[in-house]
Write a structure and sequence with these properties.
Elements: H1 4-20, H2 25-44, H3 51-68, H4 85-104, H5 114-117, H6 124-134, H7 137-203
Amino acid sequence: MVGLTAALTFVYIYYKASLYFKTYNILWSSISGIAAYLLVVWILSFLQLNTYVAITIPVIFALLYIRLFKQIKNVTISQKVKLNYRILFLRAICAALIILTITNAPKYFVSNWSGLFSAFPTTLFPLMLIIHFTYSKKYVHTIIKNVPIGMFSLIIYSLTVSIVYPKFGIYYGTLIGFFTATLYLLIYKNLISIYQKFRFQQEV
């Protein structure tokens, strides 16, 4: 679970690098993000963590990054780009190579890094690259802005399964974990909706 801290740092550094580099923006943003992830994983590998600390660290970092991403605007894609099969195929290959590289990377590191590598955003990173390639970095920033919020669902899921697995087993425990994570997202969505309506009424 503590590896989620590295995942959050990855998206933050990707965001900062995308603002800094003017040429080869996608390449340098990716390299910077991966380097930051590896650095955090390396630091975490030296820590002896209990369950409470493993939960507290990613929660603190998620709250921190929510604040740091507060100024990012939510930008929606108004005009979708038409993609041909060749472009889609090349990007799918790129995403697959990233996932294979990351999933096989722990074999070449010490054993206590394996669990930390499992937190790498193997589905998020290819999505970010595709959006960055197809549109622009401002749309990637919108994704990044909402990552810490979504990360809480992973924290809740991980915490839930760690509690219910011993009692209910893998299958039922996983279902309970998905239920609690989904419940969090639904509650969050409703709270945001209520807050936005309240702000609208105040402005009127």
